[in-house]
Specification:
Number of strands: 9
Order of helices and strands: HEHEHEEHEHEHEEHEHHH
Shape: globular
Largest sheet: 9 strands, mixed
CATH topology of the largest domain: Rossmann fold
Distance between the termini: 47 Å
Length: 317
């Protein structure tokens, strides 16, 4: 993965050869060069696991690529990477023919979507990743520095849940990244997502908007939507923080099956309430990033740890 050409530190962007300071400076240059060719960088994050963040990431990337945009999809959920399986990508970096001075090729999905995941680098994709923070930081930096992303309209970054090493590394390495925050309607999920929004506020990351996933269940027989997890909590939280609300996406068994089969539902011409909802989310992301000077926002400071759910002038929390 390092792309290191032996002892020649001038060709190494991975930081694994030459003096540490020189190697880091070289990698910083490679990162800046790569990021300079990417117009919009979007970190898809969530406060807790199991809210469908990877499904949103994959369908957002696929949907944008189907509209003719050049898109990259970077999976930085290093302990639980799912992107390769959701796109049925079985490539291995070991099989790629690369000269020692060349950047590494990402995987390709369709004509317009480039993909990288840690599984791409592994011999056995079922092996666990048992890494502490510094190794995770270095892996994410290498994903940017050593991959041949080329010119992109969008780089979609699928992060693990929470506010740990991976989203923090993205915020520090890609200072102009913007966030799409995914939640489900339940209050326990909303309590966690408020932490993600406060994370964005603390690292000064602008937020494209919020997606309320699993907002109702689409019956496979009659196609009616039933609100089994309540609805509207994500929209209310977005309003509390003064953010754009991108849309509500219901649970659709067809979307779940498509993800398990490695054939994202949005890459087909099928119709369903979930596809309509994803289309609206993509419409909003496309519009907001085109008008980002006026429509991208910082999460408003709630003044306390309640995430905007109380009056900061009277709250004692």
């Amino acid at each position: 993965m390092s792309g290191c050409g032996g002892g020649d530190s001038s060709s190494c962007s991975s930081g694994s050869c030459g003096s540490p300071d020189a190697a880091m400076a070289q990698q910083d240059m490679a990162i800046n060069s790569s990021l300079g060719k990417i117009k919009n960088k979007i970190l898809v994050m969530s406060g807790k696991g199991g809210v469908g963040k990877s499904t949103v990431s994959v369908n957002l990337a696929v949907g944008l690529s189907k509209r003719g945009y050049k898109v990259g999809l970077m999976d930085v959920d290093l302990h639980g990477p799912d992107i390769c399986r959701m796109l049925n990508l079985e490539d291995k970096l070991a099989d790629a023919k690369v000269n020692k001075h060349e950047l590494l090729p990402p995987m390709q999905f369709g004509d317009n979507l480039k993909v990288v995941s840690l599984e791409y680098m592994m011999e056995d994709r079922d092996d666990p990743i048992i890494w502490r923070g510094p190794l995770k930081v270095q892996a994410i930096r290498q994903f940017i520095a050593d991959l041949a992303w080329g010119d992109l309209d969008y780089l979609i970054i699928d992060a693990p849940p929470g506010t740990g090493d991976e989203p923090l590394t993205v915020a520090q390495t890609i200072p102009d990244a913007h966030a799409v925050v995914v939640t489900t309607p339940q209050e326990v999920a909303l309590a966690d997502v408020r932490k993600s929004l406060n994370f964005c506020k603390h690292v000064k990351m602008q937020v494209v908007g919020m997606v309320e996933n699993m907002s109702g269940f689409v019956c496979p027989h009659c196609s009616e939507t039933v609100e089994i997890f309540k609805s509207g909590g994500g929209e209310k939280t977005a309003k509390d923080f003064g953010l754009n609300f991108l849309g509500k996406v219901p649970v659709d068994p067809k979307v779940v099956i498509a993800g398990d089969d490695g054939a994202p539902y949005l890459s087909s011409d099928a119709e369903s309430p979930a596809i309509d909802a994803f289309t609206k989310v993509i419409d909003n992301v496309e519009r907001i990033t085109k008008e980002k000077k006026s429509t991208l926002k910082m999460a408003e400071d709630s003044g306390c740890g309640c995430g905007g759910s109380c009056n900061p002038d009277t709250c004692d929390c």
